[in-house]
Amino acid sequence: MEFRFIDLDIQGAVARINFNRPGKLNSLNNAMMLEIHHAVDAVQSNADVRVLVLTGNGRAFCAGQDLADPAMQAADGKPPDIGHLVERLYKPLVMKLQNLRVPTIAAVNGLAAGAGASIALACDIVLASQSAYFLQAFSKIGLTPDTGSTWFLSHRVGTARAIGLAMLADKLPADKAAQWGLIWDVLDDDQFQAGIDATAQRVATMATKALVRTRFLMHAADSHTLEQQLSVEASTIRELGWSRDYREGVRAFSEKRPPRFSGD
């Protein structure tokens, strides 16, 4: 399909989705969300892709839901059903990213607010520029956080910090987000794009299936006892022990050379 509000670029094994409403800080409307879904589905079905990078054009990653979108306006005198909007578009997108067949990288180049922050946090590796910041602005308009914000925040920074961020709606600078364990790392602004490109290329050459199974194990750990997790780990490593990439990894180790993983 033709995209108006995003760019989808696939170069070799690296796919990039750029949010492209820079004049609106890449805030999300209904049409843009549908485009993002189509782009993620295209990545999922493209066997050549081995990593997905999400970022924003301009000075923001994504400012969250566009409050001027018709879906957020009253119709026939009735208030909008915002919960339906979340169930229809935002929840499925988070789940697609969490279950994508390739690893995901969020390149947070500026403001990441509301649902925009959650979309970033739904990715496997979150890298932010030095000038970037995260914002939970829901309380300022009388709403509770959505799009997984309460889950991501409480799991990564703890209940006290999660509640403070959500209630007070203070900016969380990229440096502090990294210190608190919300994101992986911060890159200098003038090295940001080069750092993202290098990370994407690095991930694209790794054992894709093993990375995705690692994501699964990490997500499952909270809901398992240690004994249960040990069993799931054994099952996963059994599967990967039969993979082509494992055989290549062992050969490369024996031959003292870098492995040439195929993603299988």
Keywords:
single chain, 264 residues, 2-enoyl-CoA Hydratase, Chain A, domain 1, four-stranded mixed β-sheet, 10 helices, 10 strands, 16% strand
Task: Describe this structure as you would to a colleague.
It is a single chain. The strands form two sheets. Strands 1-2-3-5-7-10 form a six-stranded mixed β-sheet, sandwiched between helices. The chain is globular. 45% of the residues lie in helices and 16% in strands. The mean pLDDT is 96. It folds into two domains: 6-204, 2-enoyl-CoA Hydratase, Chain A, domain 1, CATH 3.90.226; 208-254. The protein has 264 residues and is of the alpha/beta class. The longest helix is centred in the middle third of the chain and has 17 residues, at 82-98. Strand 1 (6-11) and strand 2 (14-19) form a beta hairpin.
Task: Tell me briefly what this model is.
This protein is α/β, with parallel strands linked by helices. It has helices at residues 30-45, 82-98, 115-121, 149-157, 159-168, 174-179, 192-204, 208-221, 226-241, 244-254; strands at residues 6-11, 14-19, 51-56, 60-62, 104-108, 111-113, 125-129, 133-135, 172-173, 185-187.
